[in-house]
Amino acid sequence: MDQKKIKIEEPKGKLGVLLPGLGAVSTTFVAGVHAIRKGLAKPIGSTTQMGTIRLGKRTDNRVPKIKDFVPLAKLDDLVFGGWDIYEDNSYEAATNAGVLDRYLLEQIKPEMQALKPWKAVFDQKYVKKLSGTNVKSAPTKWDLAEMVRRDIQNFKKEHNLERLVMAWCGSTEVYIEPKDPIYRDLDAFETAMKENHPGVAPSMLYAYAAIAEGVPYSNGAPNLSADFPAMLDFAKDKGVPICGKDYKTGQTLMKTILAPGLKARYLGLNGWFSTNILGNRDGEVLDDPDSFKTKEVSKLSVLEHILQPDIYPDLYADMYHKVRINYYPPRGDNKEGWDNIDIAGWLGYPMQIKIDFLCRDSILAAPIVLDLVLFLDLAKRCGFKGIQEWLSFYFKSPMTAEGLYPEHDLFIQLMKLKNTLRFIKGEELITHLGLEYYD
Question: pTM of the prediction?
Fold first, then answer.
């Protein structure tokens, strides 16, 4: 693509933010935006709000904030809507989630109470540990997708919205392999929806509805959702940017920071044992083996792709990687992740690294949701469509073109993201070669 031909539409008017799942992550995100608007808090953790970008040479001293460099929607222009299987408004849901303190929530109570969930598309076959009554009913999955489309249309009309973005913040569904023929082309998938095929999960109906309405879609869970040929072709045909999967927050974030360092110094890895305890809705869902399988596949892929044992067999061919997640209700959203890492140095001498990360899952996820909403809206206004690999920075299991391995190295991902922003604006890409300083 010729960067000179990229025309960016200005972010005029209101941007609707559609949230399937009004649980801990989405209510923490929504509450955070309201708090920041009122000057009650800072958008810490958000690349779009706090990040900067170097332009030109280091000696040029051109380092604007990203939000001042590319035309992003303003926080004041965001309007929220969403679905959930429980009837609680977002104030009640945030209170129940227990992520944010009551003092903060009381200061934004009217805004949070105004967000009331629409009836959700839900089937307990796909998320076995949850059940709720605020659920849509229809003869076929096709009809359910059409109901979601009407929700989107009504939301846009009611709030006079110019544009929309959907960010999946719902639960992890049971593991589904994309091998069935229904995933190969759109006609087969639409027929499967009309025939209530068991391979069509609820998250796929949301993704389908979003793409059909021309709405960019971000998948914050490891669900298959939109990551199969039928949906990818649909997104391209409709001119819709999509990205996923599975927001990169606690333990996996640490892996994508530390593993590139081990590889850069050619230190061996004999084993990496990871275990988590958490007590939020996510932890309850993952207590089911079928949902855990979906998460496990997402989390296990990171080290293999970063360390490339086929290229560095002496260092990584025999590494043992184990991930466990344990539901422990007293911990709530304050997840604790332990890592024991057995590494090898010069002459094969063993060493160890131990990490105990007491993190807050939704606090780490909320700014990711904000950034993806704003960047996907930017992508749509730039005319981008299909998989947005430049947003891999935010995901445990990044979507890529078929046959292309995902890039998991956090620092390479960040370079790709910032170079994409430079490309959009016609600025020189940064390679860090730096020879011009020594001519």
Answer: 0.95
